[in-house]
């Protein structure tokens, strides 16, 4: 459950933040560490050796930060102006770029949580929580549900549990609440004996740990009734000071902060201190992050503190020696170099040859015929015209491959075809009533044509919009697939090298 060795400080990062550090987060593979500060800056570091990778600044303080659980190199951050920003960085191109922005509130964003199974984002501010659902075709996040708590409360944290079936939030005013994210209906709410400065839910959703703003942390069992605290975890603190808390070791231990600059690590079952992660000077603990991979023997923790002079520092701790196939600074640099070479080859490939364009045109034409067998603007309810005459059988010959022909055996048709056709058989001139009928018929005909043109235009615009958005989504997925394939090829190569090294 716990690593065989104690944590050792691997790197001390002199923060690039000019003010306090509010958030730390490891990427899903532990290769990168992101930090967000009160100065609005977002920085990305290598998760092992702490090498600075890139950064981006925003004009408002960064309040909450998380990595996208499904897409690599994407960070989601909430700011004090109520906006939520998606930032994508590339080890090849350097600094991140903002590619999506959501104005969720006009008040500061207090908490973020992402449901990877249902592609939902929970954003909280004050007493209001909003759920945003990603649209399949456009990729835009639209509001799906909202919850507003009655009374004067302040949200502190949010977490999805049970594969996104439940959402748990903690309020500073002694309250835990559980909702159904689909409708934001309250499933249960429980009051605590102490205020809640920060909280975290264990990976198996069996426990909740919270800062009590008094003398440490309270550990609760997550059941239908949130009873009295099962245990208290004491830590040096100042009354009213919120301390960060985090479950580590797959939920087997709790890591907390303190006002002395040290980070105590408790065993979940015995509540005994396993280790204290010290800092050289007595500073205020500000943020925590952890990543573990038992098979690769990767046990990694990041801590952030600041002293009274606002000198910030981030420390990266490692327990034991990671496996040779685990991400390392050398492997990450080699990966970035190979990705640069791969994409350089793609960029230097030149314009496509004429044969490639012809093949692409044939493929597109085949897709068009497959998707629209009756044509793009053909009305599937229309039928071929049929002309019949009174007193004669309706014998109509229609062949889709040739122009329509009509057979008529009435005497009128025979007279028209005969040479004995006289001038008195010509249509008479139209009088006023007949002319009015012709005008009305012509107006109806023109109206029908106009309606058909409007229908065709609306359909064309719809298909054009759908094709553009689908193409954008397809290109994004192709880009992800290329990155995944490059990573898999590199990982396989590293595994082979590691096995060869072990065999030698």
Task: Note down, in words, how this protein is organized.
The protein is α+β, with helices and mostly antiparallel strands and 504 residues long. It folds into two domains: 7-327, YVTN repeat-like/Quinoprotein amine dehydrogenase (Methylamine Dehydrogenase, Chain H); 383-421, no CATH class. Helix content is 23%, strand content 36%. The chain contains four helices and 30 strands. The chain has helices spanning 329-347, 354-371, 411-417, 432-503; strands at residues 7-14, 21-26, 32-37, 41-46, 52-57, 62-67, 74-79, 83-90, 94-103, 111-115, 120-125, 128-134, 141-148, 155-161, 166-171, 175-180, 185-191, 199-201, 207-211, 216-221, 231-234, 245-248, 253-256, 263-267, 273-277, 284-293, 298-306, 312-319, 396-397, 405-406. A four-stranded antiparallel beta sheet has the order 1-28-27-26, with no helix packed on it. A hairpin with a 4-residue loop joins strand 26 and strand 27 (298-306). It is globular. Keywords: Membrane, Repeat, Transmembrane, Transmembrane helix, WD repeat. WD repeats lie at residues 14-45. The chain crosses the membrane at residues 353-372, 460-479.
